[in-house]
Target: P-loop containing nucleoside triphosphate hydrolase protein
Amino acid sequence: MANQPHHLIIDPWSQGLSVMRDVLSRWSRLDITQVGSAIAIVGTIPTAVRLLGRVWREAYHWVRLCFLAEVTIPGGDPLNRSVVKWLLDKRPRHHRSFTGRTQVQHARSTPDLGAALKKTRHQAQYCPHWHSRWFFQQGDFFIVNRSADSFSAALSDPSYDGIGGEELTISCLGWSAAPVMRFIETCRAYTDRQAQFFVIIYARDRYGLAWKPKTRTPIRHLDTVHLDKDVKDSLISDVRNYLDPKTQKRYQSRSMPYRRGYLFYGPPGTGKSSLSVAIAGEFGLDIYEVKIPTIATDADLEHMFQEIPPRCVVLLEDIDAVGVDCAASDKSSSSQDGKEPISNCTMSGLLNVLDGVSSQEGRIVIMTTNRPEQLNSALVRPGRVDMKVLLGNISQASSLEMFLRMFSPELGIAQPLDSEELLALAAQFARQIPEDTFTPSFLQGFFQLHLDCPREAAASIGPRVQKALAHGIEGDFEMVNRNKNG
Ligand SMILES: Nc1ncnc2c1ncn2[C@@H]1O[C@H](COP(=O)(O)OP(=O)(O)OP(=O)(O)O)[C@@H](O)[C@H]1O
Model:
């Protein structure tokens, strides 16, 4: 470099200066009137742009009025999400504008081992940000506009993932909105196909104003929930029979309310929630989760139930809390400590939404409890609860099934076994599990430590069981407040 002649080195500064010098010398040759008119022309550009903008808006307003048919979908509606998802997936574009937000992921859903050691992992999530899109679909021309007003409101909601929160207006050329409706149906079918492997669990948003998808859990096959086979079979055939369209007609022709309620009861960790998710998955239903203690008033509860669609599972978890909370709120309302009483839903409010005039027909209500003896008899009377299902501690037969499921050759374990050895190990394992003593979640916790070693699992369950029995069924933890006499 040092030996290179100077004229071969391209210096950007000297290049730029010579261009400027050139421009200035040309300008200096212009006469002042030419310069004045050039400045005047440049000065009119912003006004012209504003004018053109107004003309365009005015023209678009008239085109919209005379030649476009449109459908508006409010932000947060599932249809809105379907349309935006379809657009992003099927009409991808190069985007230069994004909304970014922090996405909190559970550690178990990340392949990153380092992050898995932490409870949660924060990731940046970017979603294309657009206001207007146009495209052709099956020979029709569509314009999709997103409302900018609702955009910032949706962004301020931390549970919002950037899709479907803003009002959408979908327009097509013509006098009929039928093509738009057909297009919306295409989008809905597309997202339904994507969601068929998941159960969507809806919960109230943080303001308690609307239902929002809380999680999408992969469908859990009914075989993966272990309980008495006869009980499971009769439960599933009851649900299947209820959802049969003929049943609805039969109910209606006899003036019977078309509703079905189930109570899943049993100790914690016996699969009440898992069974609810498996049922929803089996019948292609979404779950609407209602947490009674978080509901402020009976009116809120009623409002919530009015917005639950007819064909779904309504999951009322820990329903025994209703009685406790009502009692607590009754006490607090008469308390002398001067504090504002905690407003809560009452038993009559709950009964009203379960089978009153406001209750939707066609849904399945599943109530779960660990303490069935505390339930108000009115709540579990036939008509509100049509079938009670005990999910108890695990039997030896179910332990055997669970072992076979955990070490199934299809799962590709590190120590593959032939089917005979697998069956023998499963039988050896099950023999060491005392009948109806441990919860399925206890066994699941044990399997988690031996997922790749079925032989080790079968050999070490004995000592594990003895230890758990010696320390109390809860496992290695001594229960400090346990009243052994009571
Ligand atoms: N019967 C079962 N069959 C298979 N797995 C089970 C069963 N019971 C519990 N589990 C496992 O144990 C864990 C806890 O189960 P789940 O939350 O369904 O229990 P639960 O009865 O609803 O508990 P809680 O009353 O504390 O809410 C889940 O990971 C589930 O896979």
Observations:
- Residues 98-128 form one domain.
- Residues 106-111, 324-343, 477-486 have pLDDT under 50 and may be disordered.
